[in-house]
Design goal:
Order of helices and strands: EHEEHHE
CATH architecture: 2-Layer Sandwich
Structural class: alpha+beta
CATH topology: Alpha-Beta Plaits
Distance between the termini: 19 Å
Helix content: 25-40%
Shape: globular
CATH class: Alpha Beta
CATH superfamily: Dimeric alpha+beta barrel
Number of strands: 4
Radius of gyration: 14 Å
Number of helices: 3
Number of domains: 1
Length: 94
């Protein structure tokens, strides 16, 4: 499994209408352990989420199924693999 940081910039006139469906989608992913944390950035210009997926291709399928993407509310999307090393959410080193 790999971690990915996904940042999106919203299409201003579209995101508010789609937001409830987007949040329901992310909630379902969080319940399955795919989304660790997600939320909007300041001034509602976009959002960021931390995903765990088998591969970049698997992640691509997940984020392409997001209502924000399907309904044209994403102006720009950046995906970067992330390798957590230190943090309270990580298991203690053995």
């Amino acid at each position: 499994m790999a971690w990915f940081v996904v940042e999106i910039r919203y299409v201003p006139e579209k995101f508010a209408e789609v937001r409830p469906r987007h949040r329901d989608y992310l909630l379902s992913l969080a319940e399955r352990g795919i989304v660790a944390i997600a939320g909007p950035l300041e001034n509602d210009t976009g959002g960021m989420a931390l995903y765990q997926a088998e591969s970049r291709e698997a992640l691509q399928e997940i984020i392409d199924t997001d209502p924000y993407h399907l309904e044209g509310a994403v102006a720009e999307r950046t995906v970067r693999e992330f390798k957590p090393v230190i943090g309270a959410w990580l298991p203690a080193p053995s």
